[in-house]
Amino acid sequence: xxxxxxxxxxxxxPKAELKEAVASGKKVIGIMPYxxxxxxxxxxxxxxxxxxxxxxxxxxSKQYYPAFICxxxxxxxxxxxxxxxxxxxxxxxxxxxxxxxxxxxxxxxGVKNVPVINVAFAENRKIAAGIEFTRSxxxxxxxxxxxxxxxxxxxxxIRKAITIYNENRCAILAFSKAAATHPAEVTAADRCAxxxxxxxxxxxxxxxxxNEVTAELENLPASDEGYLKIVTxxxxxxxxxxxxxxxxxxxxxxxxxxAHESVNARYVIPEAxxxxxxxxERLAEIEGCSVLYDPGKKRGTQLVEMAxxxxxxxxxxxxxxxxDPEEYDYVPVKRMTDSASIPMLQIEIDQQMTDYGQPESAxxxxxxxxx
Amino acid sequence: MADVYTMGIDIGSTASKxxxxxxxxxxxxxxxxxxxxxxxxxxxxxEQALSNAGITINEIxxxxxxxxxxxxxxxxxxxxxxxSCHAIGIHAVFPDVRTLIDIGGQDAKAIRVSTTGKLxxxxxxxxxAAGTGRFLDVMARVLELDVSELAERDAMAENxxxxxxxxxxFAESEVISQLSNNVNICDLVAGIHxxxxxxxxxxxKRLGIVEPxxxxxxxxxxxxxxxxxxxELGIPVRIPPLPQINGAYGAAIYAWEHRKxxx
Lengths: 371, 263
Prior knowledge:
The complex is a heterodimer of chains A (371) and B (263).
Chain A: H1 2-12, H2 14-23, E1 28-31, H3 38-43, E2 47-50, H4 71-81, E3 90-94, H5 98-101, H6 103-110, E4 116-119, H7 128-149, H8 155-180, H9 188-196, H10 203-218, E5 228-234, H11 240-248, E6 251-258, H12 259-263, H13 275-285, H14 298-309, E7 314-320, H15 324-339, E8 344-349, H16 357-370
Parallel strand pairs in A: 1-2, 1-3, 3-4, 5-6, 5-7, 7-8
Chain B: E1 5-11, E2 16-22, E3 26-33, H1 41-53, E4 60-66, E5 78-79, H2 82-93, E6 99-103, E7 108-113, E8 119-124, H3 133-142, H4 150-155, H5 168-180, H6 185-207, E9 213-216, H7 223-233, E10 237-238, H8 246-262
Parallel strand pairs in B: 1-4, 4-5, 6-9, 9-10
Antiparallel strand pairs in B: 1-2, 2-3, 6-7, 7-8
């Protein structure tokens, strides 16, 4: 599968994509989690470049953050402090969680070469005033992007970008569905890498490659016999060793509620006269992510439905270490999965982890209990 | 008919346990070596268990490896998680036990055992030494005691000292501070056991206690810690005759069952 290999190569070396884009004269904007209006960057002819941390040890970042802050922020800041992201023209940093609220100031204090675009959403994102606030913030961000791009961005350009992003979201979901029945051809690590590549490349090109892989898979017989079907939930689940453990235990990810993977893909932006208003409305619709205000605790309900629809044997709650919103969510989610009699295992991961002994034992035991 | 021997080896973080089973029921030999994965411990435990059983490795018809270092034992026919093996092992000793609390060198687990001895559900501790055998090792060193002396000292306690810190490092400082205030060592030991029990009971309650409850792992050899756990849970806790080799016992039974299916 050439397309899959191409996607895996991009994920393995995202900095090469960054260098290549910059060398071609394209400006690149770093996009931190979660739910930044990256369509505006794309509409301005620049490359949005996802910053979800990296598997590395963070040292210098500890001057700015205490050790008990999630590794996504630590390692992203570490890369910034070490000058590894100096090719970026700016970085979008939202304030979606308590730790992120300090990220913008930390970045400005420590990373001199890459300016910050602060991204604020309405906490009450679903009410009319909240949607209007988010829309107005996105319009402000649009102005900052225009300054960096050195030109204005029209609503038509934003609409075109939205169409490309919506197509990409549909492609991710279609690929995820095809991969669910083809674990022999697409390992858990492959699945993650194929989706993750979209954070580092042109979204239209990502869609094309993903669709190619999906079409190939759809022409092959299913290879999921004997595999345990699992649904994953959490912020990020891209650690190669974790994914390898899932494969070794003959588990296949049949769907996910991972912020880094399908949560972002599950909601398309509606067509509207004001495309930025439509982006704010889309943010109001998103469910299944702990950093978005969810008074109705719909994450658990959605997760149970996903597991039932996919015929899942169990759920893996992949807790990002030191992520308070995830820890708060775990309790109601666990209650809901217990009520639905769907087995769920919580494992804790960290991008600075070197020893996977405990998750390996836990996942193996979970698989044994499901068989 | 010739006797059939199977072996279970539980390679932990701090100890290697090997057990040889004859015809799926009789323990022919076992060994516990205080050296875990990455050391000579696994090899020595096998040699000693074989010697105790009076047989050679060629007479073993199947081997199951379990524990933290299970993947490093190349002679294994099956590799099974220690949680499943503990469930099988305790079911063989106490068939009615539904909750097993296993406290090993570096981790603690609460395991729900089905009526047929299958692993049904489990909770593991965080990556933290509190509530594990390592916590007791550290405290014993500070008190200038051997861990084997802790139970005896606990039995002589009159006023249990409260150890408020959960973290092993901070608890160690707290114990040193109490020592400098001339607090009775026996009272301190009982406080340390209560600290382990509080942590472990919390873990078990997360799983949900279904009686009867049993305890396994090296810490179960310490009657002071076991009594503290009983007090914390408010119910009796059964201890198998060989708590430290419960996982290896389950592993050997697993090997027997699977060889039997193949025959």
